[in-house]
Every structure is written in C-alpha cells, then in structure tokens.
Amino acid sequence: MRGAVLYGPRDVRIEERAAPTIIEPTDAIIRMAATCVCGSDLWPYRSLQAITGPTPMGHEYCGIVEEIGSAVRSVKNGQFVIGSFFASDNTCPHCHAGYQTSCQRKEHVTGAQAPLLRVPLADGTLVATPGIPPDDLIPSILALSDVMGTGWFAADAANVKPGATVAVVGDGAVGLLGILSAKQMGAGRIIAMSRHPTRQQLALEFGATDIVTERGDAGVARITELTKGIGADSVLECVGTQESMMQAIHATRPGGYVGYVGVPHGVELDGRELFFAHVHLHGGPAPVRQYLPKLIELAWERRINPGRVFDLTLPLDQVAEGYRAMDERRAIKTLLRP
Amino acid sequence: MRGAVLYGPRDVRIEERAAPTIIEPTDAIIRMAATCVCGSDLWPYRSLQAITGPTPMGHEYCGIVEEIGSAVRSVKNGQFVIGSFFASDNTCPHCHAGYQTSCQRKEHVTGAQAPLLRVPLADGTLVATPGIPPDDLIPSILALSDVMGTGWFAADAANVKPGATVAVVGDGAVGLLGILSAKQMGAGRIIAMSRHPTRQQLALEFGATDIVTERGDAGVARITELTKGIGADSVLECVGTQESMMQAIHATRPGGYVGYVGVPHGVELDGRELFFAHVHLHGGPAPVRQYLPKLIELAWERRINPGRVFDLTLPLDQVAEGYRAMDERRAIKTLLRP
After folding, report:
1. pTM > 0.90
2. Lesser CB count within 10 Å: N end or C end of chain B?
3. Complex prediction ipTM
4. In terms of CA atoms, which chain A residue is nearest residue B228?
5. Could you give all domains of chain A from N- to C-terminal order, each with its CATH number?
6. Tell me: the pLDDT tens digits for A186-237?
7. Which residues of A touch B260 (CB under 8 A)?
8. Max Cα separation, chain B?
C-alpha cells in the first residue's frame, strides 16, 4: 500500500509501505474511509520536534473493520468505526476515570495516512457508528478522531458552563472546534482570538460572539476590556507556545479556568506568577475516547458539523501539498482520501 | 505600643511603634486577643524573600474591635472579630466568585504581631464570632485567620471528595490542617508525608491514615505503591519549593487534582511535563474570607481544633524566640500573647 512518511524538515512523501497485519490478538485492521493532517503533525514537519528516522505519519482515522484479532469482541468485520490517536484498554483505573489518553496500557496509533491501519486494543479503542455514514458525513465523523474531541476537552477542562464568558486562544482547527464545543456547552459569550479572515468567519459560524485580533499583552488587554476588567471565566489554550499559554492565563479571571490542549513546545510556567494568577489549570492529551459516544451521536444527528474545518480535500497521493497548505496557513485542515 | 519588626536575616525585634489609627473611613482598629508567626514569615526571616527596610511583621489576628471608621457598618466596637491576611471589599466580582484574596481592592494586612492592628475594608474583611470566645478557644479561632483557611483551600483546590485518596506534601501547620480539612471533607485515605515524629503524631490525630517518610522521587514511588500504581486522587502541596511541587504533581493520578498553597519560591513548571501528567492544578493565596463563616461555626462548636498546631505560646515580647523555634523546627507554630 502507499502511505505518508516524513523524512525530514518539510519533506513528507507518499511511498510504498508494507500493509499492516494483526500482531496482537487484540488488534484490528481498518480500511480507511478518510484520514487527515493534524496541527501536531506540523511540529515534526517543521522540525520543531525531532524524528529519529523516516516516520509513517497520521493518527486520525475512521473506516471499516477489515480484520480483527482472535481476542477482539466488541467490533466486527464490516462495521464502520472510529478511534482516538491513543489506543486504550478502556478498563484500567485511568480509563475508568475518563483519562483514556493516560491508559496504563496506552499505545500510540501511527501511520494512519494510508489506506490501512492497525489499531491496537481494538475493544477499548474503537467505537462503531450507528451504520455506514453517508459520504457527506465522513468529514464530521473523521474530525471526532482527534480534533473535535480535543476542542471538546479544551472546553471541558476549561469548565465551560451555561452563560459563561469564554475566550479561545488559537484559530487552528482545534481552537475553532473549541468554539463549537463551548457553544454546545451553553457559553454565553465566546471571544475568538484570530486575525485570519477565513478562520474568523468559521469562528462566527461555530458560535463566536466577538473577535479579538490583538495578540499577547494587547490581546489580554482587549479581553480585559471586553469583560469589564474581570477576565474570562474559561479560556481555551489551543496552540502550545509560551506566548499563547501566558495569553490564556492572563486573560482568565481569578478563580477561572484554563483548559490547555496545544502540546507545549518550550513552555515554562513561573510558579509564583501562576500562584497569584489564581486560575485553575488543566489539560493534556485529550481523552477523546471518553467523548466519542456523545460526539458520534451529535454528529450523526447533524447537530454539530465539525467537518467544516476541512477546507482542503486531496487524494492521499497529494499528501505533501496537504502539509504544505497547512504549514503556509492556506488551509485550516486537510482531509485525505486514500 | 510594642510590636515585632524584622530588620534582616534572622533579626526580628520587639520595639516601640506608633499605635495604628483610622486612616480610611472603612478601617477598623482591633485589640489583639492573640497573634502568631506564619510559615510565610520565615521566608523573609531567612532572607529568601527580600525586605526593603525594617518591616512590621504579622498578618494573623483576632480580637475585639476598638474603633471603627465612619463608613463601617457591619462590625462595631466591642465585637470579637477575625479576618484574613488580605483585606477585601467582599463586593467586587472576584469576591463574589469566592476569590477574596484577588479582590479588586485588596490590601495586605501587616503589623499584626502587636497589641493593636488597623484592618482596612473592615466591612468586607472582618467576621464577628457568635460572642467573646473562652480563652481555651482562642488558638482555634486565631488559626482561622490564615493557616486553617489555607489548609482548607488546599483541600478544596485539590477537589477532595468523600472516599478520596489524598496525599499531603508538607508537615508544617498548613499541611497538618490540610489533613484536618481533608478529613472534614470525607477523604477515605489521607497519606501524610512527614519524617518528624511530633508532626506525624498530630497528623494522625487530625485524620491521617498513612505516614510516608520518603521524599522526592522515593516519596512518589511510595505513594504509587500505596495506591496500587494509580496515584492519589487529590494532593495538597503545602511547601512551595520545586521539589515539593514536583512531588505533588507526580504523586497525583491522571485526572487527579493538585491544590497548592505554599507560596512558590523558585518554582518553574515544564509545560510538557505538566501536559502529560494530566493533572488539574489550582492554588494561590487562600481566599480565607470565603471560608470564615463555616470555619468559625466548626471551631465554635468544637468540631475542629485547628489551634492544636500551636505547640509554643509566648508573650509577644519573646517574638524573637518564637521565630527561632519555628526556624529550627522545634515548634510547629508559635502563638503570641500581646
């Protein structure tokens, strides 16, 4: 089969790879309906995160079960399934607490930018949809594999409550879906921080009530002004840089909540500053598996349309252009058809 | 009047100071029933926190209202009152959210190691007890001014729930009262980290079920072992050093809560490490004012006895020995009688 492999800085290639096979009896093989490029794929693509050699890429997936290991009980061949970027057994204490991305047996799922994918711990990881989704629903189902669940976790970790004033730092796909999530949770006011017209537009469509184009201290000052000097109740940090993290913390009222899901790159928090900021801080790799049943229901009933973040669809063979378009911010998120 | 003044490293003196007077119409003057030395007083005493010149010390207080400003409405002369180390108006949005130590008009209360004290924003800051407390109740009432409320906030910020497994880092007065607080909140298991026999004894009296004497990574390993590899649901960080903070974060299960109340000194948190730890983090200066009505009720009915942390009582004139005993860890906490 032909899959995407990262070779070095901005060098992603489509090449012949061995098709995956069942290794553990708990594995399943999925035939991909669609896959995509994640904002986090750009970190190694931009060589801001080291790779040790040619690396098969992709961790977002949905499709039809092609083969299952002998121990798999909860999914079967021919079902349409979706799973998270971390495989989890969904039975350990951390999974029971809703933190499947810290599962005691967690495994990375990688190499999803390909027609076939091996998913470990299939019983714990995969959730079947009510049927085979129609083609126009595939983007929204695919989004649940990571980006939508991550936006949802950002809003959940930021304790978004009905009527709350929410600010979202980051206008990538995760930030935009954080807006959609906050709206679903009943936020009264949603301030999107974005200076990019296309993204502002989608932010408004997803439920943003205000757009702030300033960044850093100026952005914080603008949010302080918009909230009458109080600060936001909940702030979603969806970038992962020092600037975005401090912007999030400083835009939050004392006693408010920061939910952070951007994988931190070079972020250092000063203990004393955090102490006097008086905020709640929670985040990490989104436990997407926890949210899948609910999010599948919402997407299936077309009450949410997270697939809107895919503004570029390419055949898998053109994966290099898919990365390039996101790197250059010409595309919010690229969907790949195997 | 004679009050305590810090001159430099380990040089605290009792000396003649001008008695406080009403400056703002919202002020009150309190005649101290008792005051004490705080663990946080030891930071400047040990010159780990700079002072700019001779500094009147003390911020824990309770006593009888001697004089009120013309705008004060909620307390009157002759009442026995208690307040927090930060004065707050108790009407601003942050106060309404329960974060009085981030009040938009907050002011430090200082110079309490003296017979008389000026308390700003008296209406928002002071809470009257149901009557004049009997002498043996004074230590427990005094403790509510800071140390008990801070231990309570640590447990509250760490989201202690009935049945929870709780670990407490720090066996100072705050840590010990964190144990008492966790017990009040219904914790099922309370692991005290202490290697000091007297403090271990008080920890057990306050409700600790386990004692861990190891520190740092060894302490974390012991907690992991005690919790069958899971980690604690709630960890109270009551010290404020890099080691204690990391000990707290690493001892918490994914999805668990760290409540931190030790004022951080030289603490730096690595964003990536925090991200993958998957913990909730909340802390800061304890909003003691929020808890005062409830804690006064508990202490008044003798359902809690936080005054047990005072294992040394001295006349105010011997304040220097009071600091020395705490600095050398001969005393947990020193009560001073003016």
Report:
1. yes
2. N
3. 0.96
4. A93
5. 2-146+287-337 (3.90.180.10), 150-283 (3.40.50.720)
6. 999 999 999 999 999 999 999 999 999 999 999 999 999 999 999 999 999 9
7. 275
8. 61
